[in-house]
Amino acid sequence: MDLTHGGVKIACEMTKQLDKVYAYDIYNTLKKENKDLLLRYNVEILSNLEDIDNDTLIISPVHLPLTYIDIENKINKKNNNYKFLTHHDAVKIILDYWIEKTANIPKIEITGVKGKTNSVFMLKEILTSYNPLILSSLGAMLFKNNRKFILKKNISITPASIIETVKLANRISNPTCGVKPDYKNVNYDVAIFENSLGSCGIGDIGLLTNIAENYPIANNKKTASIAKKQIFNCKKVVIEEETLSKYYKEEKIKFKDKINTYSLNKDNSDSNLVLKNVDYSLNETKIEVKYTSLKTISNKEISGNIEINTFAPGKHHVQNVLGVISACLTLDIDIDLIEQGLNNYHGINGRTSIKKIDNLNIIEEVNPGINTKAIKNSIEMINDLKDYCIIIGGQYGITCEEIDEKKLSNYLDEISENKNIILTEELGKNILNKTKRKLRFIENYNDAIDLALENNKNILFIYRSNYGEISKR
């Protein structure tokens, strides 16, 4: 069920394991080329749920706007014996052979509301000698001997994209046409997967960055925290202590032997890793952490201190750094590699990065999932800096997670008296109509940037970008 979010890929792959596979296009958005693909794989496309047989395995994404009870009621058959799986669960089944053949290769799954992509590329810098295979919202990539192979640029972070990434990497490793994938010969020594709304449970390490906003999903029947609970299916779990205690009280007890936590609060005695000291800078922030009784993948418990210098101009960036350090320690990565890798990390162009034009700074916070909390974090980052213009804009219809316009408008009303703010594009226009204070609006974001530079202003550019707009990443 749900062919929009990777369902076509999952249905086709499932025909290799099941005698009969059906597909149901709940949103009626199936394109002709995908319909033809399903038919080539002998997938039967259903027109309504009543055509589903008894004793059926039903696979749907965690954010489907129907509960399992809703589905059973719509099918409306007696003595039914249905088993339900999420798309995440199905991907683990489909990749079972790959998981077995690459058992010696560490796998990291990353989910959360914010910080996923930055965490992926911090890990990439640390694990560069491992020739990492990566799936992120910036694309599927393979790094080999300091060379980057772009497997696919415009790819989603739905669970099914992990299947595609693994197969694309296999073609690089085994270019002979017609060879059935056996995954005995691969060109990577670690795999890092950014995953939307949860985890497939294939990770040796599952990193949950945060629940910055517990936004509703599944037509308000679930929340982000419920979906991301799938992270606990991984062998070891790394999670912020405050997030664990707030949203996952049962899991904190049930999975205590495989959880490592981190915290920005140095006095949080429940956390395995805490921030002891931080000295913020736009270009290089000095971070000191202490870790205690941290459980590693090799079943050791370790304690110690790390001091690193890296690109982390704001509090939310430091939070991401703590998660990445915790994940690497859990994976038994050498401290020297962690320090060196983070020192080499300078942000991501088109995500969080800093550009210089003459003597002026442009801080870019570009993200398809920017929400009110992320905007607050970014603005707080420059509170002590002078001569800044804040440009906020972007597009809608990019992710399942949309912006609470009322909340953002109220926040901008609170701070606009002391801040130089320009709104731009679709998002800016919507916010402009809801703010009480009269904020400046410029249709084109390039014109807004040019105006700020002409007035000799540094810029904080907060932009909600479309996945397809590669140049704005």
Fraction of residues in helix: 25-40%
Task: Estimate the mean pLDDT confidence.
Answer: 90
Question: What is the overall shape?
Answer: globular
Query: Given the structure, what is the number of helices?
Result: 16
Distance between the termini: 31 Å
Q: Low-confidence runs (pLDDT<50, min 5 residues)?
A: 467-473
Summarize the structure in short.
31% of the residues lie in helices and 25% in strands.
Secondary-structure map with pairings?
Elements: H1 7-14, E1 22-24, H2 32-40, E2 44-46, E3 57-60, H3 68-75, E4 83-86, H4 87-94, H5 96-101, E5 107-111, H6 116-126, E6 133-136, E7 139-144, E8 147-152, H7 160-173, E9 191-194, E10 205-208, E11 216-217, E12 222-223, H8 224-227, E13 236-240, H9 241-247, H10 249-254, E14 259-263, E15 273-279, E16 285-295, E17 301-310, H11 315-330, H12 335-343, E18 352-357, E19 360-366, H13 372-381, E20 388-394, H14 405-415, E21 420-424, H15 425-432, E22 440-442, H16 445-454, E23 458-464
Parallel strand pairs: 1-2, 3-4, 5-9, 5-10, 6-9, 10-13, 13-14, 14-15, 19-23, 20-21, 20-23, 21-22
Antiparallel strand pairs: 6-7, 7-8, 11-12, 15-16, 16-17, 18-19
Helix pairs in contact: 1-4, 6-11, 6-12
Notes on the protein architecture:
- With 473 residues, this protein is an alpha/beta fold.
- Helices cover 31% and strands 25% of the residues.
- It has 16 helices and 23 strands.
- It has an 11-stranded mixed beta sheet, with helices on both faces.
- Helix 1 crosses helix 4, helix 6 crosses helix 11 and helix 6 crosses helix 12.
- The chain is globular, with a radius of gyration of 23 Å.
- The C terminus is likely disordered.
